[in-house]
Every structure is written in C-alpha cells, then in structure tokens.
C-alpha cells in the first residue's frame, strides 16, 4: 500500500543526509525507521504486560530483597 509522508524541510534534509551517508535511498531509511519503531514499541508493550501480570506475584519477595 502506498502512502504519502509529509516532512518539514528540516526533516527532509536530515533524512537525505542520513540516506546519503548510508548509501541508501530516503525511502529505505524511512522504511527501516518505521520497522524499528514498530518492533521496539511491540517489545516494550509485551514487556509491560508481562511485568503488570507477574510483578504483583513477586512483590513481597522483592520488597524483602530491598530491605
């Protein structure tokens, strides 16, 4: 699916500089940034869910360790 990404002139210049430095197209750099963001956010959300469900189970032990 195609989409339009509107960037400020400053963002466009930064993206162009990064793409030039890596020898890649601006599209490749932007696409990798989106993929990295989605992956990082997904992992963080998963970790938050695990901690929310498991931390209360060990709260007493963790409190004793902190004393």
Structure description:
By secondary structure, the protein is mainly α. The chain has a domain of 41 residues. Helix content is 75%, strand content 0%. It is built from 3 helices and no strands. Helix 1 packs across helix 2. The protein is elongated. The termini are far apart. The mean pLDDT is 90.
Q: Strand tally, please? A: 0
Q: How many helices does DSSP assign?
A: 3
The succession of helices and strands, N to C, reads HHH
Mean pLDDT figure: 90
Q: Any low-confidence stretches, pLDDT <50, length ≥5? A: none
Largest sheet, strands/sense/barrel:
none
User: Helix amount, in percent?
Assistant: over 70%
Strand content: under 5%
Shape: elongated
Q: Assign the structural class, choosing from mainly alpha, mainly beta, alpha/beta, alpha+beta, or little secondary structure.
A: mainly alpha
CA distance, first residue to last residue: 55 Å
- Radius of gyration, rounded? 20 Å
Key terms for this structure?
mainly alpha
How are the SSEs placed, and which strands pair?
Blueprint (H helix, E strand, L loop, with lengths): L8 H14 L3 H29 L4 H7 L2
Give a quick precis of the structure.
With 67 residues, the chain is an all-alpha fold. 75% of the residues lie in helices and 0% in strands.
């Amino acid at each position: 699916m195609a989409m339009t990404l509107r960037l400020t002139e400053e963002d466009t210049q930064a993206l162009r500089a990064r793409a030039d430095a890596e020898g890649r197209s601006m599209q490749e750099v932007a696409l990798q940034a989106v993929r990295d963001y989605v992956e990082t956010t997904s992992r963080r959300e998963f970790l938050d869910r695990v901690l929310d469900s498991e931390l209360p189970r060990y709260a007493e032990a963790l409190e004793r360790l902190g004393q």
